[in-house]
Amino acid sequence: MPQHISLTQFLIDEQRAGRVSADLGLLLQALAQSVAAIAATVSKGALAGALGEAGTENVQGEAQKKLDVIANDILIQANEWGGYLGAMASEELEFVCQIPSSATRGDYLLLFDPLDGSSNIDVNVTIGTIFSVLRNPQAKDKEPTEADFLQPGRDQIAAGYATYGPSTQLVLTLGDGVHGFTLDRETGGFLHTHPFMTVPTEACEYAINASNVRHWEAPVQRYIAELQQGRDGPRGCDFNMRWIASMVADVHRVLTRGGIFMYPLDEKCRAKGGKLRLMYEANPMAMLIEQAGGAATTGRGRILDIIPERLHQRVPVILGSRIEVERVTSYHLDLES
Ligand code: AHG
Ligand code: MN
Ligand code: MN
């Protein structure tokens, strides 16, 4: 068996190198513990009473699954008392989640999508958790407001996701490359199994919900039509398609073996600005993909440069191997020139 260092040792090494503060280290350890707790519940499935509907709706007007609520509660309870957070924000909560008055506030803001890929929970397909860490611009004696969270993705201090698949992996960036850790279920520890993950620059694979083809804009229709022509078309390559419908799982595949992931603007989601949420889906994934050498855009601009207007804002997302992302972007430019 290969030897891997633990997440704890990795974080202490990062602290010694001056890349991580002690409080950020604590935050990331607490996140890892939350992920292990969510993974335990996910793996028990029906035995833990974790499947099915919660019978409630979130701020997005989406029906919540039991696991959306369980994962949200785990993340809040693990992080609210540590003293390193000013406040939290979640896909499942309409407003900023304040730190209880019994705890002290700290230097960071934490945002998360507690359970990504909710439509896959009850069919036992890979799901995940996504998170983003920002600096808390507010004085510690003041409650952070929504405005304090509205920072562009390029200012993220850390970002990551967990994927609950055949194994549980935690994929993390602190702004100095992307690192993957695998949960050892027997010890509960995370081991540094995937140092410096990089997105291959080219790959003949794409991920998009193709049932929306009639709703897409012309540049996306053109790009996908060219891929589908395969070896005989302008790309001269037989592209393969995969769509899991858990962003975490689809992006993890792109991060691992290259390709492109798209949830573009379309007529179905135009009024909302897109399908995926900027602050806790698009921004953390864009930071990870850029840190791994890939690119992430709305089709019209870099995701990490968007100045957010709302906590639950939605945006188009196109990310992955740089060459493919640049091609889709150029098709959008052609349309607008
Ligand atoms: P969530 O479960 O957090 O609401 O996110 C679901 C998102 C994302 O994970 C996935 O890429 C997309 O919705 C799937 O959308 P379709 O059902 O339209 O394919
Ligand atoms: Mn999601
Ligand atoms: Mn979710």
Structural notes for this entry:
With 337 residues, this protein is an alpha+beta fold. The chain contains 8 helices and 17 strands. α1 (7-16) runs antiparallel to α2. The longest helix is centred in the first third of the chain and has 23 residues, at 22-44. The structure holds 2,5-anhydro-1,6-di-O-phosphono-D-glucitol and manganese (II) ion (MN) (2 copies).
> How much helix is in the residues?
25-40%
Q: How large, in whole angstroms, is the Cα Rg? A: 19 Å
Mean pLDDT: 96
Order of helices and strands: HHEEHEEEEHEEEEEHEHEEHEEEH
Using the alpha-carbon principal axes, give the shape.
globular
* Low-confidence residue ranges: none
Number of strands: 17
For the sheet with most strands, the description reads:
8 strands, mixed
* Helix/strand class: alpha+beta
Strand order of the largest sheet: 4-3-5-6-7-8-9-10
Bound molecules: 2,5-anhydro-1,6-di-O-phosphono-D-glucitol, manganese (II) ion
What is the end-to-end distance? Answer: 56 Å
Alpha plus pi helix count: 8
Strand content: 15-25%
